[in-house]
Design brief:
Leucine Aminopeptidase, subunit E, domain 1; 2 domains; nine-stranded mixed β-sheet; elongated
């Protein structure tokens, strides 16, 4: 795997407490008065001098006269199970060994450890000078550290992939990462490249990627017991998106290395699944392309015959993600998986509707949708259901082909994009489409500006619950 793609151990989490481990006591706003009253006079003065009120993320260090830290008070406000609270706490502490001196239930202990670990994430591969701090947390005995490490490794893999610029993460390199991940877990991988896509009927993948120097390809990973329930993940792997001949303005291209965020998400999720040994037959499909410009670039007005047989008029070459996904979804549908999920950085309309932090998801399966929302809330991993409003599909009509790849209006753009994808999913297959941003628009503790994994912890826990691995 590329040497800066992090799938290794998490060094800031420890299962055995050292003798010098410093206690971190969590104090909620409701507990503050009772806690303060129990301090000695000198400590109470220290609390007042530092204006410590147990607000969310506040940290107060109690030290002996020789300057050695004796213990830490950390405010939680009204939240005690938000991972980013623990990221704040970890980020404010000096290097050292710590343990949380407050009893947390099993779930909250896991959430705390995840947030603490993610406070240490930094994509620094291209920096000539780095300065990483390391506040090591000894997790509580009821913390499932193996599970937490899977969350962190999967999230970190997704972040690293998105953060890597296209010069080092084009279709060729993305395929290499996928191959090495598959090899690490004994999975089978098949990659269809260049004109072989045409020979196999993957015309839309080829059409989008043919103008780039690095040839388009379809990555196909299979892992697990063939007789187990089939779960298939499809990820949009547009490694850079110029917009094609409908070229984006320069400002809109600045972060288009992230347009393979869907592929990054399914690889991060696949790592979690394979590492856990979940009893499913997992398949991962990634159409990997660059949407570039050259003499043979896809043109507005062209018509392509998809793998499934539908003819598609190109209304806009910048709506390329749905084109590469449609062939992969049709291929996935042939074996009728028990669950089919796709992740894609698909529409700006989704961001207008829900902002950058909350990915919408679309599904006609009510039970699947309900369970995803439940796990999203439990894991503090935001997702929100949106409707597949069938009448809007008429907006995709074309006078000269079966479908247009863009709607006749900009209204409801996330819905019409989802409806386009749904056309290529087999009937009666439980399917969900995640329209993710895959990017933190600003710096926040534990969530630095740059690539982000969105929804994959929630999906992972949904799959763990469904297939009885606790």
């Amino acid at each position: 795997m590329l040497n800066h793609i992090n799938t290794g151990d998490i060094t800031c989490l420890n299962s055995e407490k050292t003798k010098n481990s410093i206690a971190v006591t969590l104090i909620s706003g409701d507990e503050f008065e009772n806690w303060s009253d129990g301090l000695n006079e000198k400590q109470q003065t220290w609390v007042k001098v530092n204006n410590f009120n147990a607000k969310n993320g506040e940290v107060l260090v109690f030290a002996a006269e020789n300057g050695i830290i004796e213990n830490i008070a950390a405010g939680t406000g009204s939240e005690q199970n938000d991972p980013w609270l623990f990221a704040k706490i970890a980020s404010m502490l000096p290097d050292g060994d710590y343990h949380i001196n407050t009893q947390l239930n099993d779930h909250d202990a896991n959430i705390a450890a995840f947030g603490w670990a993610m406070a240490h994430y930094k994509f620094d591969h291209y920096l000539t000078k780095t300065n990483k701090k390391l506040a090591i947390l000894t997790v509580a005995g009821n913390c499932d550290i193996a599970r937490v490490n899977r969350w962190v490794r999967g999230s970190t893999l997704a972040r690293d992939l998105v953060n890597t610029p296209t010069c080092d993460m084009g279709p060729t390199e993305l395929a290499s990462v996928a191959e090495k991940l598959a090899t690490a877990f004994g999975a089978k991988v098949n990659i269809t490249v260049g004109d072989d896509l045409l020979e196999n009927g993957f015309n839309t993948i080829h059409a989008v990627g043919r103008a780039a120097e690095k040839e388009p390809r379809l990555i196909d990973i299979k892992w697990g017991n063939e007789k187990a329930p089939k779960v298939t993940l499809v990820g949009k792997g547009v490694c850079f998106d110029t917009g094609g001949l409908d070229i984006k303005p320069s400002g809109a291209m600045l972060i288009m290395k992230k347009d393979m965020g869907g592929a990054a998400h399914v690889l991060g999720l696949a790592q979690m699944i394979m590492e856990s040994g979940l009893d499913i037959r997992l398949r991962v499909l990634i159409p990997a392309v660059e949407n570039n410009i050259s003499a043979n670039a896809l043109r507005p007005g062209d018509i392509i015959k998809s793998y499934e047989g539908t003819t598609i008029e190109i209304g806009n070459t910048d709506a390329e993600g749905r084109l590469v996904l449609c062939d992969a979804l049709a291929l996935a549908s042939e074996e009728e998986p028990e669950i089919l999920m796709d992740f894609a950085t698909l529409t700006g309309a989704a961001r207008v509707a829900l902002g950058t932090d909350v990915p919408p998801y679309f599904s006609d399966d009510k039970e699947l949708s309900t369970q995803l929302l439940k796990h999203s809330i439990d894991q503090h991993d935001p997702l929100w259901p949106m409707p597949l409003y069938a009448p809007y599909k008429a907006l995709l009509n074309s006078n000269i082909a079966d479908l247009n790849n863009v709607a006749s209006t900009g209204f409801g753009g996330a819905i019409t994009a989802a409806l386009f994808l749904k056309h290529f999913v087999g009937k009666n297959i439980p399917w969900v489409h995640f329209d993710v941003y895959a990017w933190n628009a600003s710096n926040r503790t534990g969530r630095p500006k740059g690539g982000e994994a969105m929804g994959i912890r929630a999906v992972y826990e949904y799959l763990m619950a469904k297939y009885d691995i606790q």
